[in-house]
Specification:
- This protein folds into three domains: about 1-115 and about 125-190, Immunoglobulin-like (Sandwich); about 195-300; about 300-409, no CATH class.
- The chain has 14 helices and 13 strands.
- With about 400 residues, the chain is of the alpha+beta class.
- Strands 1, 3, 5, 6, 8, 11, 12 and 13 form an eight-stranded mixed sheet that branches.
- The radius of gyration is 25 Å and the shape is globular.
Length: about 400
């Protein structure tokens, strides 16, 4: 155990969970005041968890003198920062805020073009800034560790948090200087237990199935919530919550068995407020079993009930390219990207062609969105003058679709 503590006392890799601290911010320097307390603990006192289990921890803020300090809800407004979580060792730990699992090959496919593409992400919050006075009774702030950090292997882990979200509540000037806080080091053990994983998966499957059967039997998978009465809406929301909770359990497990169940239930549809689909998709693109994901999703995409989308095709193309060339997505330099263009185009071509051939078998719900995704890619030339799908290939597919339509009459 001493060796573990010596590791924990060393340099820890910082994995931020929110807005990073500005190097020029006026955060108070020096030691944390002795009458101000900042602790980290597990929610229920446990220290041993299963691999694939939700790990819930808590921040505890308190002060010996009531109302001397205030806890900020938006510390970045005065150049502080909310909690930042550190895990050591960090090998095999993925910060899903920094890497959500989404992959794209679009910039490589556009590498021969003279123009570029850009994207940005913005977040906002309105009317949610407030200050909570600290007292000797701790304010507890829950943190679901595994909602952000994916721990991919068992081991002994050290957790620590830092924050600059507390200010003195005495004068206006002091109120604008956040105090730098560092928590204790919390030790947890993550163990692998295949039996527990299988039992948890079985429970999640049953939970999902029962809720989905009720949901579909009432026709809510095809009915807008705006067309429903208040009592029905409440029951519908409860069933959606059951499916979401079950999907989240499967996502966290991330075994080959749970991944197969996730892919089986994911149909690619983007309709209504079926949020569980987003959780299932996250479970797919964030899985540590990337080769298995490629095989499963490539096959699932071609099945009659699957709604093929640009998102899925792009994700699969990028994942397969990265599986063949692990460093393919590592640089934005045009010359670097161009070397991977031929293989990226070949992979994309094969996926889009397969989707085109599957159109003849798509059911009435999945056909239109899948056809739109196909058309989006088929005529793209990616600045080469040659469409991705050739005229002869298009003619062959049109014949297949026409024959299928005649047989379906």
């Amino acid at each position: 155990m001493n060796s573990y503590k010596s590791i924990a006392a060393g340099i820890l890799l910082l994995l931020t969970s929110a807005v990073a601290q500005d190097n020029n911010s006026p955060v108070a320097e020096g030691q944390q005041p002795p009458d101000l307390h900042y602790q980290l603990a597990t929610k229920d006192g446990r220290t041993v968890f299963h691999l694939g289990e939700a790990i819930e921890i808590e921040e505890l803020y308190s002060a010996d003198v009531a109302k001397k300090y205030s806890l900020l809800s938006l510390p970045h407004l005065i150049k502080g920062h909310p909690v930042q979580v550190t895990i050591n060792p960090n090998s095999g730990v993925i910060d899903r805020i920094q890497d959500g699992g989404a992959r794209t090959a679009n910039s490589i496919l556009q590498a021969n073009c003279l123009y570029g593409h850009g994207e940005g992400v913005g977040v906002g919050c309105g009317d949610c800034d407030f200050r909570r006075p600290l007292t000797p009774s701790p304010i507890r702030i829950p943190l679901n560790l595994t909602r952000q950090f994916q721990i991919t292997k068992p081991g002994h882990y050290f957790l620590q948090t830092k924050a600059a979200n507390v200010v003195l509540a005495t004068t206006a000037e002091q109120m604008n200087v956040p105090i730098a806080l560092t928590s204790n080091i919390l030790e947890i053990e993550v163990v692998e237990d295949p039996l527990w994983s299988r039992e948890t998966l079985a429970t999640a499957i049953e939970q999902f199935y029962k809720a989905q059967v009720k949901y579909v039997s009432r026709g809510w998978d095809k009915l807008s919530i705006s067309q429903m009465g208040a009592e029905e809406i409440g029951e519908r929301i409860n069933l959606e919550g059951e499916m979401q909770a079950a999907a989240e359990k499967m996502r966290l497990l991330d075994t080959e068995e749970s991944l197969a169940e996730i892919v089986r239930r994911y149909d690619g549809a983007s309709i209504g407020w079926d949020y569980y689909r987003y959780i299932l998709y996250e479970g797919i693109i964030q899985s540590k079993h990337s080769s298995f994901v490629i095989d499963l999703l490539s096959e699932r995409m071609l099945q009659p009930d699957f709604w093929v989308s640009e998102q899925v095709i792009d994700q699969l193309t990028a994942m397969k390219l990265q599986s063949q060339f692990p460093a393919a997505l590592d640089s934005n330099a045009p010359s670097y990207k161009k070397q991977f263009y031929p293989e990226a185009r070949r992979i994309l071509h094969d996926y889009v062609l397969a989707v085109g051939k599957s159109l003849a078998e798509k059911d009435s719900n999945a056909y239109a969105p899948s056809l739109n995704a196909f058309n989006l890619y088929a005529l793209q030339d990616y600045c080469t003058g040659k469409p991705l799908i050739s005229r002869s290939e298009l003619q062959e597919m049109n014949q297949q679709i026409g024959a299928h339509a005649e047989n379906s009459k």
